Amino acid sequence: QVILQRIREAERDMMFEEYRDRVGELITGIVQQSDSRYTLVQLRERVEALLPKSEQVDGERYDNSQRIKAVIKEVSSSTRGPSIIVSRRDPELIKKLFELEVPEIADGLVEITNVAREPGYRSKIAVVSHADGVDPETGEVIIPEAPDIDPARLSDFEDQIEIRDVTPHDFGRIAAQTAKQVILQRIREAERDMMFEEYRDRVGELITGIVQQSDSRYTLVQLRERVEALLPKSEQVDGERYDHSQRIKAVIKEVSSSTRGPSIIVSRRDPELIKKLFELEVPEIADGLVEITNVAREPGYRSKIAVVSHADGVDPVGACVGPRGSRVRMVVSELRGEKIDIIPYNDEPARFVAKALSPARVREVLVDDDGKQATVIVPDDQLSLAIGREGQNARLAARLTGWRVDIRSETEFSKQESEAGYGEEDAEDVGGRCHAILANGRRCPNAALPSSRYCGLDSHQALEGKDTDVVGQA
Fold first, then answer.
1. Where are the alpha helices (DSSP H) in 33-126?
2. CA 4 to CA 372: how far, in whole Å?
3. Least confident of 105-114, 217-226, 335-344, 420-429
4. Beta bridge partners of 224
5. For residue 389, is pLDDT > 60?
6. Given pLDDT bands bounded at 50, 70 and 90, which one contains residue 168?
7. 5 and 19 in contact (C-beta within 8 Å)?
8. What pLDDT score does 439 carry?
9. What is residue 291's predicted lDDT score, i.e. its pLDDT?
10. What's the rounded Cα separation, in Å, for the pair 231 and 273?
11. What is the Cα–Cα distance from 114 to 412, expressed in whole angstroms?
């Protein structure tokens, strides 16, 4: 314990000696915590500084992990170690920031003689030039162009040419530290630009990342070293947990640039995730032999995908299911048990709508092409299955096909037909329900066009003026 105590005391003394002569110097730190009295700023490992309320700028927020710049205001020694006070209000901060950005000030060609500041609102600085050809307002140095001289012509006069070190005599530790900060800042900015350029064209791409931390607002996902993405609450699937160090897949939703670097937003709710997962597991999709034409999804519960084959002899549904269901099982596992219905796409709306209502069996589909509405007739024992829990199956089928789906049982449809009747209406009646009789002997369920006894289907309109309402006998 005595040895450890001596080591800690030696570390405190070394830290105090390191920072006692750095009052007024610009530092960059990371906010660790903030309360009503002060903000704790980490300068480097095991070295922290205090930003008191009196040295903070009104209206500024200091969030955790935020990188801020300040000047060292005071360094004092105590029994608990050196106390470093930094300031965001000190006018010296303006000088140091200009020195960081304007090389002419750092080189002594231009000097800031005075700073008048109202923190958070406005500042005025007075500048003066110490060199000819330097504009003190812009800091621009007008250097005459050097004559073009071939270096080979000077080789004979090397003994007459004086070579000397032009490093300024006052280039001390503070100037070296400032130069280091400028170089590191430029490197960080270059890294941010490279990262933004790398990910800006990858929106919609599938990525794999490791969960770093998770809270009520978002989950932080590490894509690779020093590259992180945000999975907001709005893009998470209800009921899913994201534990630390867990590996997850998601799609890139948005990439935007900001002063703190590129912001990468990923999603687990986007229907594009299902497309990319199947592309990963099904070689036929990756090769373009099978295509997923549409996806309807209720994240965490059930999804329906429509697939079509572009090659003879390739079954699109079988390719997606895989041997003994191995391929679709991998996708379901990644989606944490979300059910997936794989539907074969069909150009005929009636057949497509019937398949989309799977696993329910459909007896008949009556379509209205103009209104994109389909009336689906199902056996009585299949009605609840076709509608699904809280209408989920019907809702997903409508999204997948793009048609409005009206599901009726056989008993309900027959009762409606019998109540409507066929021969009781006057032959000249117009409007209401279409009078056409289909091949199955049932009346067309579509609405008749204004001033007509029939709907908009060409075969039904051909019955106008005929002495029969049966389609195909006109």
1. 92-101, 103-106
2. 81
3. 420-429
4. 227
5. yes
6. low
7. no
8. 73
9. 93
10. 14
11. 89
CA distance 456 to 369: 8
Residue type, 141: V
Q: What is the pLDDT of residue 426?
A: 43
Contact in structure between 105 and 139 (CB atoms under 8 Å): yes
Rounded to the nearest 10 degrees, the angle between the axes of helix 272-281 and helix 326-334 is 140
Q: How far, CA to CA in Å, does 68 sit from each of 93, 236, 427?
A: 12, 31, 85
Q: Is 459 helix (H, G, I), strand (E, B) or coil?
A: helix
- Distance from C-alpha of 289 to C-alpha of 274, rounded to nearest angstrom: 18
**Amino acid 113: pLDDT:** 79
Query: Does residue 427 carry a pLDDT above 50?
Result: no
Tens of pLDDT, residues 336-379: 889 999 999 988 888 899 999 988 988 888 888 777 888 888 88
Backbone angles phi, psi at 348, to 5 degrees: -80, 115
Q: Which two tokens stand for residue 473?
A: 């006998």
Strands 206-214 and 247-256: antiparallel
Backbone angles phi, psi at 14, to 5 degrees: -65, -40
Question: Is pLDDT above 90 for 318?
Answer: yes
Count of all residues that appear for the chain in the document: 474
**Helix 392-401 vs helix 349-356: crossing angle, to nearest 10:** 150
Q: Give the mean pLDDT of the chain.
A: 82
Distance separating the N- and C-terminal Cα atoms of the chain: 107
Residue 469 clears pLDDT 70, i.e. is over it: yes
Tokens read off for 73: 């205001």
Residue 37: its pLDDT value, please?
86
Structure token pair of residue 277: 């997962």
Between 262 and 204, residue with greater pLDDT: 204
Q: Which amino acid does the sequence have at 38?
A: Y
Q: Residue 426 and residue 373: Cα distance in Å, rounded?
A: 27
Looking at this protein, which amino acid is placed at residue 65? S
Nearest to 237 by CA among 318, 147, 161, 336: 336
- Of 85, 84, 92, 141, the closest CA to residue 112 belongs to 92
Residues 209, 214, 217: CA angle, nearest 5 degrees = 115
Amino acid at 56: Q
CA dist 386 and 189 (Å) reads: 56
pLDDT at 267: 93
Q: Cis ω on the peptide bond leading into residue 82 (within 30° of 0)?
A: no
In angstroms, the CA 164 to CA 51 distance is 44
